[in-house]
Amino acid sequence: MPYKWTGPRAEADQEVTLSLWPHRSLPRRGFAAFVLTTFTLITVPLYPLLGTAVLWGLLPFLLLAVGGVWWALEHSYRTARLSEVLTIAPEDVHLVRTNPRGDVQEWTCNRYWAQVNMHDQGGPVAHYLTLKGAGREVEIGAFLSEDERKVLYGELAHALRPPTPLVG
């Protein structure tokens, strides 16, 4: 899953951190291999045309196609430079979202009033997750898959339970 918990989640009186990031199905090494393979396969039909004027007529379009593939994949990598870090402390909850362009959005709420909501319909994605508190409702994990958001909802609801006071 493209998120990771750090800290003791079993104990509600300890600080835990949840880091979320978009899924990357194609690593950088695969990106380079894919562009190189695309270039190689596109040039195969050009071999019989070597030394002819037709080669120079087709070559710009084939290079434009390879450039378009490279640009589209690179754009996908740039937009995926997004991350969210949720820190759940004994007293408060703090969410920091770093957008692809580097701007940062933050939300803080008292842990007692923080609640996680799942909107089955009506959100920008199915099973849309939000955190509500301090007069605001913010999204979390909108880039996750539907199944991942369903699992995350249960984990967040468990993690946001208020710490139980020690009776003794």
Tell me what you see in this structure.
There is one protein chain. This protein is α+β, with helices and mostly antiparallel strands and about 170 residues long. Helix content is about 35%, strand content about 25%. It has 2 domains: about 5-25 and about 85-160, PH-domain like; about 30-80. The protein has helices spanning about 30-45, 55-80, 145-160; strands at about 5, 15-20, 85-90, 90-100, 105-110, 115-120, 130-135, 135-140. The strands form 2 sheets. The protein has a 5-stranded antiparallel beta sheet with strand order 1-2-3-4-5, with no helix packed on it. A 3-stranded antiparallel beta sheet has the order 6-7-8. Helix 1 (about 30-45) packs antiparallel against helix 2 (about 55-80). The protein is elongated and about 90 Å long.
Shape: elongated
> What's the helix count?
3
Indicate how many domains the architecture comprises: 2
Please state how the strands of the largest beta sheet are arranged side by side.
1-2-3-4-5
Strand content: 25-35%
Identify the CATH class of the largest domain: Mainly Beta
Measured distance between first and last alpha carbons: 40 Å
Show unreliable segments: none
Biggest pleated-sheet summary: 5 strands, antiparallel
Encode the helix/strand succession as letters: EEHHEEEEEEH
CATH topology of the largest domain, by name, is: PH-domain like
Q: Which range best describes the helical content: under 10%, 10-25%, 25-40%, 40-55%, 55-70% or over 70%?
A: 25-40%
Please tell me how large the radius of gyration is. Answer: 24 Å
What is the CATH architecture term of the largest domain?
Roll
- From the helix content, strand content and strand pairing, which structural class follows? alpha+beta
Total E-strand runs: 8
Q: State mean pLDDT (0 to 100 scale).
A: 89
